[in-house]
């Protein structure tokens, strides 16, 4: 993995998480996995349980943090640790559904990323390639997610877009 901050973008089931995990493993550092999902229904509980099982015994320390990501990331960041956040999309939807100010949460996250001690890999969905959402909340979320992705990509040293399991490098660190 090259660069201090890496953003892995893509659509649903594009291979984002698998790529992000591989990048984190390549560092050889201790690995902390920030899971942002919340189980609001049985299907999501099953998905979360499967993700936990997939990481069990694989050297990951998992921190489940659906809302206060910036503070938790700040506390966990060390020079000897790579942090993987999976994913910014679920985190932002949690923030918005909790009726917290998305702009302030994003600002706080970006400030934390700017001072993180070790490498950070972030996973996020590219939601602007599909249909226009039917509801005002859906459109507000799509817009906020697009702005979040742009800001993280601008800060990141390395940005990868995943499509059909294949990586496309959008931004590489300067040599």
Written account of the structure:
Helix content is 44%, strand content 23%. With 175 residues, the chain is α/β, with parallel strands linked by helices. The protein has a single domain (5-133, 140-171), classed as Rossmann fold. It has a seven-stranded mixed sheet, with helices on both faces. Helix 3 (69-76) runs parallel beside helix 5 (102-115), helix 4 packs across helix 6 and helix 5 runs parallel beside helix 6 (136-155). The protein is globular, with a radius of gyration of 15 Å.
Strand and helix map with partners:
Elements: E1 5-10, H1 16-26, E2 30-35, H2 42-55, E3 60-64, H3 69-76, E4 81-86, H4 88-97, H5 102-115, E5 120-125, H6 136-155, E6 158-163, E7 166-171
Parallel strand pairs: 1-5, 1-6, 2-3, 2-4, 4-5
Antiparallel strand pairs: 6-7
Helix pairs in contact: 3-5, 4-6, 5-6
């Amino acid at each position: 993995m090259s660069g201090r901050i890496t953003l892995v973008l893509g659509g649903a089931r594009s291979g984002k998480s698998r790529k992000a995990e591989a990048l984190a493993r390549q560092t050889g550092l201790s690995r902390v996995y920030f899971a942002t999902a919340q189980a609001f229904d049985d299907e999501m509980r099953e998905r979360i349980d499967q993700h936990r099982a997939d990481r069990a015994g694989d050297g990951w320390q998992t921190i489940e943090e659906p809302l206060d990501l910036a503070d938790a990331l700040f506390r966990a960041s060390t020079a000897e640790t790579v942090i993987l956040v999976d994913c910014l999309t679920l985190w932002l939807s949690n923030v918005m559904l909790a009726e917290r100010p998305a702009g302030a949460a994003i600002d706080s996250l970006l400030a934390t990323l700017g001072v993180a001690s070790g490498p950070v890999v972030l996973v996020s969905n590219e939601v602007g390639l599909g249909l226009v959402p039917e509801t005002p909340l859906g459109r507000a979320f799509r817009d906020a997610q697009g702005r979040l992705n742009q800001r993280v990509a601008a800060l990141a040293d390395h940005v990868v877009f995943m499509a059909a399991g294949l990586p496309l490098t959008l931004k590489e660190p300067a040599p």
